[in-house]
Sequence to fold (347 residues):
Amino acid sequence: MSSAMRKTTTTPRARRLAAATLALGSCLALAVPAGGAAAAPADPVPTVFFGDSYTANFGIAPVNNQDNERGWCFQATDNYPAVATRTLADKSITLDVQADVSCGGALVHHFWEKQELPFGAGTLPAQQDALKQDTQLTVGSLGGNTLGFNRILKQCSDELRKPSLLPGDPVDEEEPAAKCGEFFETGDGKQWLDAQFERVGWELEELLERIGYFAPDAKRVLVGYPRLVPEDTTKCQTAAPGQTQLPLADIPQDALPVLDKIQKRLNDTMKKATTDAGDGAEFVDLYAYTGANTACDGADRGIGGLLEESQLELLNTKIPWYGHPNEKGRDIQAKQVAAKIEEVLNR
Fold:
């Protein structure tokens, strides 16, 4: 896309025009003869998966592309796109996966801008470059890194503020971690959070419009994030079986409902983006399906604890899960995503 086109597509007027065009196209596509609906195509569905570490399924081994720079995306060979694709194949629904460009650390704007990899490992092209004119389905998760969820976690934890592979700095390192609940609900912390949510909202709007521009016939499926904190936060004061660290490390218990509220707000922001995008945009509400599989649900947890060792190693050292789905959580993601794909393809 030229710089002029890039600038034009980000204006409010252009976004309204694009939305109107998409709505008109959807209405025309739905105009079928009375007495019957259009039959779903039986051919393989050209599909592109995009997203961040929750689509790549950071923490699950082995990872793809270990012989090139994309290995730094920590994209699991059996991430939820791969598992969902197999699940659908068992139902005779074939996805022709044109690309899976999900990468750990990706922000929403990396959908249209290159992504710098850690440790100077190189750069990756914009994820939208994987889209083709014949792409019929796009699926993925983005938004958590743009919100700054790692920074939020570090604001609430002295343990996470220690040097580690977890990127980002606390929002305000002068404020003690013990007061992070109050910090995010008042004053500068609340103001920062409100601004972050506003940014996430309009960038997701931009992402969905860009898919409509580069792949006009594609169904757009935005996948939310699984729930991290349970309704009963006392569960978080007990280590999971076989673990010594608490699932959410040293985050104060009175801050846990605040973290849950922030995650719920992110979920609602993502859902609203798909609703505002109109026909052809769908949302997978993982938050709603994972309340019994949070990081604090012991043997039933679908989220690896913040400091629990994952399946990955770097320089002979185990990397923590940092709150990402384990294999149980990955399978929940895949099940819900496969069900949504089956629904949108009308199979």
Notes: The mean pLDDT is 90. The beta strands are 45-51, 95-100, 115-116, 123-124, 137-141, 219-223, 281-284, 309-314, 317-320.
